[in-house]
Design brief:
Elements (H helix, E strand, L loop, with lengths): L12 H9 L3 E3 L9 E3 L3 E4 L9 H9 L3 E4 L3 H9 L8 H13 L2 E8 L2 E11 L2 E9 L4 H16 L3 E5 L3 H4 L4 E4 H12 L15 H7 L5
Parallel strand pairs: 7-8
Antiparallel strand pairs: 1-2, 3-8, 3-9, 4-5, 5-6, 6-7
Helix pairs in contact: 2-8, 3-4
Length: 220
């Protein structure tokens, strides 16, 4: 008898959003034809919005204001840069899905610009008062850390309560990220989804290096 070659139903933007609301997120092995699978880690990484850590060295870099910080001006460029590495989970289907979410207003990017060149950035998905960080990249020293500093500031002013980093890395841990249980994560996610936040909300003060540092109480 012929083998059953039926594949799972295609993932749509709506299904993707439903997955995030259930606490799971998509990945692939990066191959063009690789199917997407869902991940629900036993231990989940989050970045407490009141616990972002800016070291003295990072503070010095932020004060230099070497880069222009923009939001949603090159979402596709950020996702492509995040995928441009030897091993990536972002295949063509995932790229297209996030582009659709971006056009629907659910996916956003923060870009770090040097001159006219994109040198760092981060992107993710928003639902309610939750921000699901997907990936980030850096082509200059500390560019991704600077992106996260500006991102955390924006999430605070926008009324977000949960910044999901999915996993913990040494890089994220050095900035204040922590690991919580799956059960605790789902509790926090449930509370965040009951509220509304605005990623594009502007803080009352100017978004400047001094403002970022003044509003961050974890500088040390």
């Amino acid at each position: 008898m012929p083998k059953d070659t039926a594949k799972s139903p295609p993932i749509t933007p709506e299904l993707l959003l439903h997955g995030y609301a259930q606490g799971i997120f998509p990945m692939s092995h990066g191959d063009p034809d690789d199917e997407i699978f869902w991940v629900d880690p036993t231990d989940r990484g989050i970045m407490p919005l009141d616990g972002f850590h800016i070291s003295r060295s990072l503070a010095r870099e932020i004060r230099k204001e070497r880069y222009l910080i923009r939001v949603d001006t090159d979402f596709a460029g950020v996702v492509r840069a995040c995928a441009d590495r030897p091993e990536t989970w972002i295949n063509a289907e995932i790229f297209n899905l996030y582009m659709m979410l971006h056009h629907m207003g659910f996916a956003h990017s923060l870009e770090v610009i040097e001159g006219n060149t994109l040198v760092g950035g981060v992107y993710g998905v928003t639902l309610g008062a939750a921000f699901f960080g997907e990936s980030m990249f850096s082509r200059r020293t500390n560019a991704s850390k600077i992106a996260l500093a500006y991102l955390v500031d924006r999430l605070r002013w926008g009324g977000f309560e949960l910044f999901d980093t999915q996993f913990i890395t040494k890089h994220l841990a050095s900035l204040g990220a922590i690991e919580i249980s799956r059960r605790e994560y789902h509790k926090r996610l449930g509370r965040a989804l009951q509220k509304q936040a605005d990623f594009l909300a502007q803080p009352p003060e100017e978004v400047s290096a001094s403002g970022i540092l003044q509003r961050n109480t974890q500088t040390s």
